Amino acid sequence: MITALSSIHRLSATLTSLLLEPAAAPPAGGAFGPEFIENLVQALIFSALGMVLFALFWFVAVRVTPFSVRKEIEDDQNTALAVVFGAMIIGIAMIVSAAILG
Q1: Handedness of CA 90, 92, 95, 97 (dihedral sign)
Q2: Of 92, 93, 99, 83, which is closest to residue 60 (Cα–Cα)?
Q3: How does pLDDT run across 13-57, given as a tens digit for each residue?
Q4: Looking at residue 76, what DSSP letter applies?
Q5: Which DSSP category does 65 fall into?
Q6: How many beta carbons lie within 10 A of that of residue 69, not counting itself?
Q7: Is residue 32 packed enough to be buried (19+ CB in 10 Å), middle (13-18) or exposed (0-12)?
Q8: Which of 2, 58, 78, 102 gives 72 a disulfide partner, CB atoms 3.0 to 4.6 angstroms apart?
Q9: Angle of helix 34-64 relative to helix 79-101, nearest 10 degrees?
Q10: Dihedral angle over CA of 48, 50, 27, 9, nearest 10
Q11: Structural domain of residue 73, as residue ranges?
């Protein structure tokens, strides 16, 4: 609960600063300066690493289950299993995005 409140506080502080502070001058190196390129490369590296981790987690989850995940979701219409795997996808995406944002 405290984490959610601190997240809401940070979000409101960010929105307030964006609305009330004047826009900053563009960076000296232009829109695509060295800092932008560095951040872009880091984001691409973390995204690639995240996709590899996602594939690894997916592979492990499918191998650990004692049944065919594809058959359960597609043929047997197992909605609960689909929700669990969807939640796993969202959880991994949240971890990767937190790693990218630092």
Answers
A1: negative
A2: 92
A3: 665 665 556 656 655 656 677 788 888 888 788 788 888 888 888
A4: S
A5: S
A6: 17
A7: exposed
A8: 78
A9: 150
A10: 170
A11: 2-101
CA angle (52 as vertex; 48, 78 as ends), nearest 5? 125
Looking at the 3D structure of the chain, how many domains does it have? 1
Instruction: Write out the two tokens for 68.
Output: 């065919």
- Burial class of residue 72 (count of CB atoms within 10 Å of its CB; 0-12, 13-18, 19+): middle
Separation CA 39–CA 42 (nearest Å): 5
Instruction: Compute how many other C-beta atoms are within 10 angstroms of the C-beta atom of residue 49.
Output: 13
In the block, which residue shows the tokens 């043929």?
Answer: 75
pLDDT in tens, 61-101: 889 989 888 898 899 999 999 999 899 889 888 887 787 67
